[in-house]
Amino acid sequence: MTPPRLDTVRSIPTDEFEPLATYDDVIVGGGLTGLVTALLFARRGHTVAVLEAGHIGGLVAGSSAAMVSVLQGAQLQKIHRRTYQGVVDASVQGNREAFDWLIDYADEAGVDLERRDAFTFATTRRGLARVDGEYLVGRAAGLDLVKTVDLDVPFATIGAVQLRDQAQVDPLELLAALTADVRAFGGVVVENVRVTGVHAGDPATTHTELGEVRSERVHLTTGAPILDRGLYFAKLSPRRSLGLVLSDVPENDLPEAMYTSVDDPGRSVRSHRGQLLVAGNEHGVGRAASEAVLARDLHDWAGMHWPTARMRRVWSGQDYATPHGVPFVGYLPRGRGRIYLATGYDSWGMTNAISAARMLVSDVVGDNSDWMKTIHHRVTTPVAIGAGLGENLAVAWWFARSWTRALTNPLQPGETPPEGRGRVGSEALAPVARSTVDGETCSLSAVCPHLGGVVAWNDQELTWDCPLHGSRFRPDGTVIEGPTTRGLRRRDA
Description:
By secondary structure, the chain is an alpha+beta fold. It is built from ten helices and 24 strands. Strand 8 (195-199) and strand 9 form a beta hairpin. Helix 3 packs antiparallel against helix 4 and helix 4 (85-109) packs across helix 8 (349-365). The radius of gyration is 22 Å and the shape is globular.
């Protein structure tokens, strides 16, 4: 039983790693932020290298719903509630410019892009209040939002806010075009090279499993920063959402717009190339009782409203929320002005990623616009501080819970989980993670090497997920994503 994949891996031409090479800018992470950052630098004549631990598009960007919109659920009022209107205005301006950049780039690069309206809708009275709040905050920021109650969907809603003429894009097609353009401008894009550390010397040194490279600057554009300086991992809340691709839906029943709910458990609905896409059931990484149950729940909901739909694929994506709803972009503390980061898009990645890339480049070349300055110099409010403290209290609770559950559930000698199952228990007073996938049983240390949380089995994706800061591992212990750079130690080697 192998983990479900988003799609057949598309071959994107990349480069070989060259140890001891020197560049102006090294970008860690080959997602949307990393590739746009690299392209913007390369266009200015910088020598750049993008270092991707896996495959281009293999994680967040490749599993994204690819909704490109300045209206994204109730994000604007979250920012307003935890900062102030000026930051909302700056965020809207940054995302507007990012939207325009992407539209222009897709046209230039021949990337297929569909223009569609975006709706944020409510199914409850409480949700309707949030929709009204998003309308007021968005209008104050200059968005041409429209209230409506008439949605062309097969489920009941009681109100929505609409932003016309937004877009959707195939993320892998976009990433392939960006990769090709970075290379055409002389940049280097390398897959399957994991960065293990960065030394902020003169020049900066980026350490990888294949050797080291040197550069004037290093930009961390991974989902979560792999360096603990600044403790950004403690300021982020890692979240996962599930998505389905469904076929056999009559063409007249496919949604023509993009719909996002504000009510729990969360639903996002749209169509693409004759197929129905449904996403939702956001949850904390490693904190769900069963991801497979969440996937079935999403499938049942889709089947209730589109009875002929047949599930073709399941995917899951991970993102990180900041306490105030605004991404962290800029200098990394104790990086001597040579290390930068961009993180915390809170499921608003398609435009926030491009906005962050533009900020990273502007920080270096010194042409920050007013909206960038506002975001850089925002004041952390008591509400945002409270949200951050709440997440860290949750982390402490999950740390204690994960260890207690492991140590009070001893593994039996020779115990082998059934195919596709994983179990955490204790062996000689140490937490052990044991799973069976594709007929191979593997025993690992269950202790995440990042900060010592005990991992949990993800029964949908067949992975080990840490409930503290979102590090994830394959059944053999190798790293998938998150702030860790080291895998789970094997116990049966």
